[in-house]
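QA checklist item 7 of 12: single-chain prediction sanity check.
[x] sequence parsed
[x] length recorded as 359
[x] structure emitted
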Amino acid sequence: MNAAQHVATLGQSLWLDNLSRILIRDGTLAGLIAGSGVSGVTSNPSIFQNALATSPYYADDLARLKAGERDAEQRYEALVIPDIQAACDLLLPTFEASGGNDGYVSLEVAPRWAYDAAQTVAEAQRLSAAVDRRNLLVKVPGTPEGLSAFEALTTLGINVNVTLLFSVAQCQAAFDAYIRGLAARAAAGADVRRSKAVASLFLSRVDTLVDKQLTAIGTQEALSLRGKAAVAMAKLAYQAYLQTFHGGAFAALAQQGATPQYLLWASTGVKNPDYADLLYVEPLIGAETINTLPDKTLAALVDHGKAALTLEAGTDEAAAQLAALAHLGVSMDAVGERLQVDGVNSFEASFTQLLEQAT
């Protein structure tokens, strides 16, 4: 048993943060599911933009679509939805074996609707119907408008991956929206047992921005905190998760069969080469969580990772580190707000490039 497979026995799901047609057609994804413990897939506009730019598997379909389909966004969807469906089908046995708790594939609503709740709801419903797979999660951004859409979609029975979360406060807002949506669904007499949602907390981008601020401050205390903000934040987000979903606020819904909104660690490939390659993996292994890994990070885990329950260790130290950051003038809430705006803009730029490739 390699470390990735061992992680799964500890209650954490490992998903692959990548999807392209070549991964499906050459058997790579099936091999990772069978041999590396991969039990889900996440995608985003940047991932698909890279796939279309680098893989030869799309050329013939794109040429055919350009001849017959005028709208670039419809061409894009005609290219990627079959990939999403194929990945869903590969993961269907995982989904069924887990009772619908694992085995999901994520597809993102177009980023331009990040600040339009009504359009996000409409687009999520349309994409869910187009993919037509039980193990699809529609990705919705954790903006205020996105969370309003998420609440409505939960009430409607659409399963969602809330993405672009960068702070404990943003995670808590997502948890609260999920509970409100489930409560409304239950009040309408609908079944909440098949509802599923995850909250994707992005990590490496947090350290990149916080480290820049700490370097500018320049004191010994500030410099000693570099590379620690994201893991500390994740540990406290997990405490918020436990208090929310294993406390009184969720008890009535749990009795009706509703499942918690698991935290998903995203952006887990290190961006600073001075940091350990598994910085956002090994300290954050815990039950009822997901870590979505880029190919390189997954390979590192299989090669030399150490699997142990670590997520609840060092919680007091994590709180002290965030308090020290606040004392230095680094506001994690402000960091989260800035990164969320930057994240929407980055995905929108990738989506625009995608559409240009499909033009």
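[x] summary fact logged: The mean pLDDT is 95.
[ ] second reviewer sign-off
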